[in-house]
Amino acid sequence: xxxxxxxxxxxxxxxxxxxxxxxxxxxxxxxxxxxxxxxxxxxxxxxxxxxxxxxxxxxxxxxxxxxxxxxxxxxxxxxxxxxxxxxxxxxxxxxxxxxxxxxxxxxxxxxxxxxxxxxxxxxxxxxxxxxxxxxxxxxxxxxxxxxxxxxxxxxxxxxxxxxxxxxxxxxxxxxxxxxxxxxxxxxxxxxxxxxxxxxxxxxxxxxxxxxxxxxx
Length: 216
What we know:
Number of strands: 0
Largest sheet: none
Structural class: mainly alpha
Radius of gyration: 17 Å
Helix content: over 70%
Oligomer: single chain
Number of domains: 1
Order of helices and strands: HHHHHHHHHH
Number of helices: 10
């Protein structure tokens, strides 16, 4: 699995297709986050913006291989394992970027009433929650479920929107906790939302792997 993950990550980095979602995330933070604003509210924006970015990144990794190369890798390592490696590679980069963003926001935000360690823990859990939820959107909006590029992008956009606003979504729960905490200057780590996102991501990965092995 490590070799497959290195292979998928190498493909992503060499293709430079990661630049577009990364620049989108940087633009959102540049416009929406200001030095001196309440740190928890800024962390909510930093976490929420990662959801569509992760969905986009996962879709890039799932579709980046030419069909011939995909068949060779599937023959050598198994189609399901190769697909899981693509999902993991698409999730890893946004998670790392989100971790750096949390450190930066905590450093420049207004932490009055909120300890830096508490803000960092809350932000990291919210980032992980939104990244995993976005990975689910990206997995379900790509092959083998949605093959046409136009339909896939439409499903990705709508899925990201619903994941951010639908009651019961782990990402919405985490962002709500941060926004509410910004009003009361209370950092409440979204453990429940993060746990739900982990279970959701595991389920989506299992379904996607099984569908790939069966349909492709």
